[in-house]
Prior knowledge:
single chain, Urease, subunit C, domain 1, TIM Barrel, 5-stranded parallel β-sheet, binds zinc ion
Amino acid sequence: xxxxxxxxxxxxxxxxxxxxxxxxxxxxxxxxxxxxxxxxxxxxxxxxxxxxxxxxxxxxxxxxxxxxxxxxxxxxxxxxxxxxxxxxxxxxxxxxxxxxxxxxxxxxxxxxxxxxxxxxxxxxxxxxxxxxxxxxxxxxxxxxxxxxxxxxxxxxxxxxxxxxxxxxxxxxxxxxxxxxxxxxxxxxxxxxxxxxxxxxxxxxxxxxxxxxxxxxxxxxxxxxxxxxxxxxxxxxxxxxxxxxxxxxxxxxxxxxxxxxxxxxxxxxxxxxxxxxxxxxxxxxxxxxxxxxxxxxxxxxxxxxxxxxxxxxxxxxxxxxxxxxxxxxxxxxxxxxxxxxxxxxxxxxxxxxxxxxxxxxxxxxxxxxxxxxxxxxxxxxxxxxxxxxxxxxxxxxxxxxxxxxxxxxxxxxxxxxxxxxxxxxxxxxxxxxxxxxxxxxx
Length: 441
Ligand SMILES: [Zn+2]
């Protein structure tokens, strides 16, 4: 039938809490959804398109739970002052770059990592955007890029008081217009959260306003939380309370809120996060790169906190992030710790977080969205349900993604991107924009 794809004779990892490894299975996709999962010999249906899954692993597309598309144009920028701590990194790099981002820059800086995400098998990205001198319409520019690549994305604009009151107002406005837009189109490809930068650049007044607006939509916040100790020092010195206590006081926490990082939170703050059912997103590579520390995801698990895995724009390759996250937990604790936590963060919890906004993504289940990837993988050791994570970290992560499908649409096949986009032209244009931005650094 038209709009049907049959992926035949492959090994399937279903994903989710009770993930199973199914050998010699076929998966039938119809109208963008997974229609049937059955042993190879039992699927008799014919589809308009058949993909041979032999020698490959079929699994749900990866989800990146914290991303900044806009950081793309910093690649190779070497005119920045060396930074000795997190605050200096923000001042010397990110808060200089974001001010230079035009509408075009927002669009191209999103398009490029989105195309790379197709290559790396990441089909959903939860992004956090900043372009303080071109705020209006910036999220709509990014949406254009998301649609052109056929992926899914939840977007927000990071409200901050760091550039003055006008920018705060504009940032709030951009969130509201995008939240309204996303609610109106009700499309499982595009969702919206209310973006906030971080406690240390947000006044009480702004937090109050943001919470009042968010209550009308109940879309949740996407905010950086205790990424560096400096955020806590600021909150304790100026407000006499911890960062999470402050968010709790203003109604920022909740079951749809994402707190990125949480490297420097204490047990009391973990309790508040757990009680509010807010999600934490752990970004180990970024935390290591910025030298801010390693989040205590083991304690978070004990406290019943839902924590996922993001990249904070270090990469869109989720297995690279997974591995770094594991090594850092070993370094922080001992080599027996963190394995299950970090693997579940990526393969189970990210889908739970994403399904607070999207519907039925992140698992291979009948009736769910067909966001699937085929990875070249012939195991050289026994490969079963109970050792899937070991293969994921040490084998699958080292293999190539062959095919990427999102919502039943093939975006890459045989490692060839199948999008109606001229990558060469896109990269050339992005380089021109970057050159302009860098010249004023
Ligand atoms: Zn971030």
